[in-house]
Amino acid sequence: MRQVLVMMGIGVFAIPVMAAVNFTATDAGGGKLQIAYTTTDGDLPRGVALRISCGDGAVLDIAAPFVADPAFNTFPDYAYSNPLNYAVGNGHPLAKSTEAGALDADASDFSISMGVLDQTGNQSAGPATTTNLITVQLKGVGCPTTVTISADTLRGPASGVVGSVLSSNLPITVEVLNMCGECLKWSAPEYPDWVAWGKPACWCYRRQCRGDINGKKEPIGTAQIGATDLNTFKSAFGKNPTDLAFVSNGICADLNHAKEKIGTARVGATDLGQFKLYYGKAAAAIPECDFLHYKFWLTP
User: Fold this and answer.
1) pLDDT tens-digit profile of 224-235?
2) Closest Cα to residue 256, out of 272, 277, 276, 242?
């Protein structure tokens, strides 16, 4: 068994048919990074060897629990570090990035190494698709943290999938908000109003101050600010705070995050002037809001 695991640890998974794998990485919330994959054709993966690099001062929290696809039941690097008492299913897939062995401390660069063995200790095919290959916990100062996932060529081929896979979409990147807290800084002049209105996420859309009320491109055409935003703006325009509270996403039409100078309306002439300036334009033609009072942008 140990010989088989050592062979697996250096990337000797042999399968005869070409396949292609598409990896995805997502922010799973609360500082968690989730990796998944789908196969397009050919044979199925029998192992994965991925290198994870966290930017912006973030690290993997080695003490936090991880969740991995149970089909991947073999962890070569853990076996390498625990050769005398290893059994299939024991251990974890987290590995050191530049040498063989299980990861044993927080790290900004680490590897994921795991494979599939059957009950007799022989290589077996993994799933064609997994919505959760692994989910791990990040921590640190990154806010957000840019995570790059690439193939770990110390342990496997350039595709990151052990076997006959000749291609994958690696490397890929994803932004993880980590433990960022609130998107708006408490020092922002509009912070008290933001809190009073329930901390609307839309105020942290990167072009909301220009009129991108829903944070999305229009479903038809290229406009980032269009008919969908206009409908909300019209419903919110001129309303006093009491009435505005009954307009769905009405506070999102408050582009300058302030009450009008005359009257009680939060959505008025000042907001209208800004909205008209960028209505119908594509995102590339609309400058982002001033980032001074934000920690990070939100995406709907």
Assistant:
1) 999 999 999 999
2) 272
Which has more pLDDT, 14 or 96? 96
Asked if residues 47 and 86 have their Cβ atoms less than 8 Å apart, the reply is no
Range(s) of the domain holding residue 200: 191-293
Among all chains, which residue has been given the structure tokens 């509009």?
Answer: 190
Residues 172 and 196 in one domain: no
- CATH of residue 112's domain is 2.60.40
| Most confident option among 54-58, 115-119, 211-215 | 211-215
Residue with tokens 């695991």: 5
Q: Where are the alpha helices (DSSP H) in 220-268?
A: 227-236, 241-244
E strand spans, the chain = 20-29, 32-41, 47-54, 58-60, 67-68, 94-95, 109-115, 129-140, 145-151, 161-162, 167-168, 172-176
Number of domains in the chain: 2
Residue 49 bridge partners (DSSP): 113
Average pLDDT value over all residues in the chain: 89
Residue 12 lies in a domain: yes
Between helices 227-236 and 269-278, what is the axis angle to 10°?
170
Helix (H), strand (E) at residue 191: helix 191-196
* Residue 208: band (very low, low, confident or very high) from pLDDT cuts 50, 70, 90: very high
Cα-flanking dihedrals φ and ψ of residue 229, to 5°? -65, -40
pLDDT at 120: 67
Which of 12-16, 152-156, 269-273 is predicted with the least confidence, judged by mean pLDDT? 12-16
Q: How far apart are CA 279 and CA 111, in angstroms?
A: 46
Alpha-carbon gap, residue 76 to 125, rounded angstroms: 16
Cα gap 79→10, rounded to integer Å: 12
